Amino acid sequence: MSTLFHRLKEVASPTIGLGCMNLSHGYGNPVPESEARRALDAAFDMGYRHFDTATLYGATANERLLGLALQGKRDQVLLASKCGMAIDPELGKRVIDGRPETLRQQCEASLQRLRTDHLDLYYLHRLDRQVPIEESVGALGRLVSEGKIRGIGLSEVSAATLHRATTEHSIAAVQSEYSLWTRNPEIALIEACREVGTALVAFSPLGRGFLAGSIKEPASLEESDMRRNMPRFSAENYPRNLSLLEDFMDLAGELDMTPGQLALAWLKAQGEDVIPIPGSRSSDHMRENLAAETLSLGTDTITRLGGMMTPDQVMGARYSAAQQADIDTEEFG
């Protein structure tokens, strides 16, 4: 079993974590700081102990937010952040940079913003194709030796990249998009993770809100919401994808679960080394998601779900062509 799973057990936490990006980045305007603080306080009080952030989110605002929210609670949580992708203040756009000196600089800045002397898990947010993965991971390994990070993670990488990385240092976790309607990790990544003892941390386990059944019309999303530029949410593809939800919603009703809880229960059924980190701006939704920790599904239900929203049924790629160019993961043909 992965070292990440053992660390989660050490902090007496549920295995479902909290993706904190939504509060500051990606899904429309950032949540006001006072409201975001209240949501994070509520998340801790209801039992979340695995908090995930990144240098990129909100151009470092999300890390500063967590640094404030987790004061006095640091030894009770598993704190994860990411490096190698940041908003360049001069260019005003995101830049991928996996050079060792950049990763060290970003780590030290993250520690200051997060008000801590170490990170439990530190991910390379994106593979920098100009820098061999061994060099980036070697730099992170030196941060492990210095006690600044406890475990190394990789985000949105392929099985081949993971295997190359492990020749330099053990990898505690790989973070990848994984849900009932995004099954790319099943091509090769899950098997590779299990071969090397690495946890798979599943971001967007509710399909960026799709599986919660709450997005009826993508045009209603804020102009700055990144989903408006994702092919699956296009005016052409989304109505056809919505039709795939009908059987899923019916099954959730049969099982007396919310659709979001059913999506998380399916993901947890894929193995205890698969760790979902749903994100939300709502403390009510956070509580609903956390309740999936105790839900289990029968074999017949898991089989039934497996036949829904298969890659050949889902319309549209998960990223635009420009976004996909930065991704190293395997894709379905």
From TrEMBL:
A single Gene Ontology CC term: cytoplasm
First and last residue of the signal peptide: none
Keywords: Oxidoreductase
GO MF annotation list: oxidoreductase activity
Gene3D superfamilies: NADP-dependent oxidoreductase domain
All copies of domain NADP-dependent oxidoreductase, residue ranges: 16-305
PANTHER family: AFLATOXIN B1 ALDEHYDE REDUCTASE, ALDO-KETO REDUCTASE YAKC [NADP(+)]
The protein, known as: Aldo/keto reductase
Source organism of this protein record: Billgrantia endophytica
